[in-house]
Each structure stands twice: as structure tokens, then as C-alpha cells.
Write a structure and sequence with these properties.
This protein is an alpha+beta fold. The chain has eleven helices and ten strands. The protein is about 40% helix and about 10% strand.
Length: about 350
């Protein structure tokens, strides 16, 4: 993919949606509200900066072999917002005394490994792109994001949110935004934006399952498990198994994700509900993976990956477009009379997209 295509739809993607931070910013607990407001302000600044910055993709030299090994670098932002910060661990270096640095390094590696061994992809751009991450970003920064070039992790406020490197699926989620950027480049609003978010949840979950060697039945299908503070009534940011049940808390409100098209949310917030309606394709993937059984990345994941990277998924695709193309991918990979095709049709029908 050339650089002009990659930069067509500049996107700033965060794992914690703005509607959730908006809710916390209204808290009567001043420390909680202040941390949420600062995060929202920083995110708005970064989103604006991203919208006026052209991402310049760098194509590898013709004939240059691509290594099967990742190229990871972790930086310490030292609670500032200037990126990338101080280099603290490079590829192959020994673990540091900072658990956050080591978790980020391991998460980058796990993401690289799944895409390579599961789908034959060499890094985010399939050309061996170096994987950079900055930790300890800002002060009580309640988010993690992919800025089009690197990963960035906040430490959380230690109250509502904990360190954003604690959930490997969050690391995988954000890096998958990079994969989407270099492939279908899904526009970040409405249903195409919800698909963009869903791709990141799907592969983020697969990265966690791969790293834990879990089957679809054994997996928790949660995004951000362990990220919420001990006083929060919730288990994660999102649930692919049961969208709408991840949290129900006085400060966070109730998880608004729908599981089917019957409850599709029409809103002008969150770029048209990209973090909300993503629950529908998320649930379809969960249903497919658990119906097929075994390791979810081996069959269900291959279908999703082929659909995302096959070249036919338009940047403004809606849910029906993705469902149709995923069925075509399943037939291409496994035939039209196989269990994969039947399970996929059943999954899409269950969420109202048959």
C-alpha cells in the first residue's frame, strides 16, 4: 500500500472512548474529574494534531528481505507529553527494573508474533515496521493510543484506571489500528469506524488468547480486563461475549454496547458511536469462534484477517459489507459447504446481519 493511501483518513485511536471519560469528568470526586478532564483535553489536542498531519509511509527497498524478528523500542515519556521520550529498552535488551516498560515490550512482541505466525504478516505494515512504544505518558493520563506511528500508554489515575500496559489485549488493540491503517484504512466514523474499533478488539483478544494458549471456550473475551480500579463495579472496558455487561458503575455509568442490530445506537457522540456499536461485529466474531471451537485465531481469525486485508473492503464499508465479504472469505478459505461457512452465516444472523 502506498503512502498516499495510508494517509487518506488520518485517525487518532484511543482505547478508552470519550463518552466514558465525559462521564467521569462529571464526578463529584474532584481528583477523578480532573484526571478525566485532563485526559479529554490531551486527547482533543492530539486528535486535532493528527487531523492536520500527513502520515508518510516508508516503503522498504526493493529486494530487501524482511526479517521474522520484531524491532521493538520502548521509551519513557517521564510523565511529559513530548514523544517519544527517553529510550529505555531496545530489541533484545534485558528486562529493566520497570514493570511497565517490560509489559509494553512483551506486548509488542506478542502482537508481532501472532500476526507473523498466525497470518504470515511481518509487523504492522507487513514490511517489518519497527514497533515503538512510549510509557508513563502525561500525568494520571487515563488512556492508551496509536497515533499513526507508535503506541503510547498512560499510567492511569490509579483509581478508576490502572496502568494501561496491564492488559495485553489493549496493547494488541491499539497496534491493530495500525494494521487497519495499512490495509482497509476504515474511516473512523459510523459503521466503518465501529468496524475499525471491532477489528482492534477482535485481534487484541486473539493476541491475548494466543499468548495464553487458550481455546475460544477458555477465553474470557474481555477487552481491558484488569484495567479498572478495585473500587469500580465492572470487569473490563468491553465484553465480546456479552456486549453491554462489562461495567455498571456509579462513575462510569452502564456499558452501552449493543450485541445485535435490534439495539443499534444512533448518536453523534464518539464519531457516531464507534466504540459503542462495535459490540455488534464483536459479538458476531465471538459466536463464530465459539461455534467452531479450538483456537480462535486458526479459523475464525483467518476469515477476519482475509476480509480486512483482501483488498475488497472499502474504507467506508458498513456492517453488511463486512458480513458479505467475510462470507466470501470463508468460502474461499474453506469451501461453501464447510462448518466455517455455516457457522459464520449463523453468527451474522444471530446479530441481525444475516
Amino acid at each position: 500500500m502506498d503512502a498516499s493511501h495510508v494517509s487518506r483518513h488520518p485517525v487518532f485511536c484511543t482505547v478508552v472512548p470519550p463518552h466514558l471519560l465525559d462521564k467521569i469528568a462529571q464526578s463529584e470526586e474532584l481528583r477523578r474529574a480532573d484526571a478525566a478532564r485532563r485526559t479529554l483535553e490531551q486527547d482533543a489536542l492530539l486528535r486535532t494534531r493528527r487531523s492536520v498531519t500527513t502520515l508518510r509511509g516508508i516503503a522498504p527497498a526493493v529486494g530487501t528481505p524482511v526479517s521474522d524478528e520484531p524491532r521493538r523500542t520502548v521509551y519513557d515519556a517521564q510523565h511529559r507529553t513530548r514523544l517519544p521520550g527517553k529510550k529505555v529498552r531496545g530489541e533484545g535488551a534485558e528486562p529493566t527494573g520497570d514493570a511497565t516498560v517490560n509489559r509494553a515490550y512483551a506486548g509488542l512482541g506478542a502482537t508481532y508474533e501472532l500476526f507473523l505466525k498466525g497470518f504470515g504478516r511481518h509487523s504492522i505494515d507487513d514490511s517489518g515496521l519497527a514497533l515503538d512504544a512510549s510509557v508513563h505518558y502525561g500525568h494520571d493520563y487515563n488512556n492508551a493510543f496509536w497515533d499513526g506511528q507508535q503506541m503510547v500508554f498512560g499510567d492511569g489515575d490509579g483509581d478508576i484506571f490502572l496502568d494501561f500496559t496491564v492488559s495485553i489485549d489493549v496493547i494488541g488493540h491499539e497496534l491493530t489500528h495500525g494494521v487497519t491503517q495499512y490495509t482497509a484504512n476504515l474511516e473512523y466514523h459510523g459503521q466503518s469506524g465501529a468496524l475499525n474499533e471491532s477489528m482492534s478488539d477482535v485481534f487484541g483478544s486473539l493476541i491475548k488468547q494466543y499468548s495464553l494458549d487458550q481455546t475460544a471456550q477458555d477465553a474470557d473475551w474481555l477487552i481491558g480486563a484488569g484495567l479498572l480500579g478495585p473500587n469500580v463495579s465492572g470487569v473490563a472496558l468491553r465484553s465480546m461475549k456479552a456486549p453491554g455487561t462489562a461495567y455498571d458503575d456509579d462513575e462510569l455509568g452502564k456499558d452501552p454496547q449493543p450485541a445485535t442490530m435490534d439495539d443499534y445506537v444512533r448518536t453523534s457522540q464518539d464519531n457516531g458511536g464507534v466504540h459503542i456499536n462495535s459490540g455488534i461485529p464483536n459479538h458476531a466474531f465471538y459466536l463464530l469462534a465459539t461455534e467452531l471451537g479450538g483456537k480462535a485465531w486458526e479459523r475464525a481469525g483467518r476469515i477476519w484477517y482475509a476480509t480486512l486485508t483482501g483488498g475488497e473492503l472499502a474504507s467506508d464499508a458498513d456492517f453488511k459489507d463486512f458480513a458479505r465479504l467475510s462470507v466470501a472469505a470463508a468460502v474461499s478459505l474453506y469451501g461453501d459447504g464447510g462448518a466455517e461457512h455455516q457457522a459464520l452465516q449463523k453468527a451474522w444472523s444471530a446479530v441481525g446481519l444475516g
